[in-house]
Amino acid sequence: MIEFKNLSGKRVRYGAYKKLYKKIFYKSGNSFWLSAVFAPPSLMRRLNKKYRGKNKPANVLSFLLEKNLPGRQTGTGEIFLNAKEKNLPYLFLHGSLHLLGYDHKKNKAAEKMEHLEKKILHKK
């Protein structure tokens, strides 16, 4: 299940995000409760400073709240998207993959994550 919250004041159409959500979570066999928040840069700056120690607006932040609930491969997470950024669907995908455990701290992991992003974005 996915829910949306728009704190940005900008108009957001959710259809593309719903489709991406299904591609990312259902097709991978994960049942995921996700909240996607479209936030203004000021909130993204505060969250980035609080959780990452960086005093600048992040483009996307992901928070895994619960993982692998009893009896199924599932989780609960929250993605904050900087509504001023371009290519928000890509940032939504990127943040979602972080919730599934992907990262880009090392070259090999970054290549794997980038390959998966391209595969999902170009899949019909």
Automatic annotation (TrEMBL):
Predominant place of localization: cytoplasm
Cofactor: Zn(2+)
EC numbers: 3.1.-.-
Binding annotation for Zn(2+): 94, 98, 104
GO function term, MF aspect, one: metalloendopeptidase activity
Co-factor: note: Binds 1 zinc ion.
InterPro entries in UniProt: MetalPrtase_cat_dom_sf_prd, YbeY, YbeY_CS
Subcellular location: Cytoplasm
UniProt GO BP: rRNA processing
Cellular component GO terms held in the UniProt record: cytoplasm
Superkingdom in the source lineage: Bacteria
Listed Pfam families: YbeY
UniProt keywords, alphabetically: Cytoplasm, Endonuclease, Hydrolase, Metal-binding, Nuclease, Ribosome biogenesis, rRNA processing, Zinc
PANTHER family: ENDORIBONUCLEASE YBEY, CHLOROPLASTIC
Biological role: Single strand-specific metallo-endoribonuclease involved in late-stage 70S ribosome quality control and in maturation of the 3' terminus of the 16S rRNA.
Family to which this protein belongs: Belongs to the endoribonuclease YbeY family.
Alphabetized NCBIfam families for the sequence: rRNA maturation RNase YbeY
Protein name: Endoribonuclease YbeY
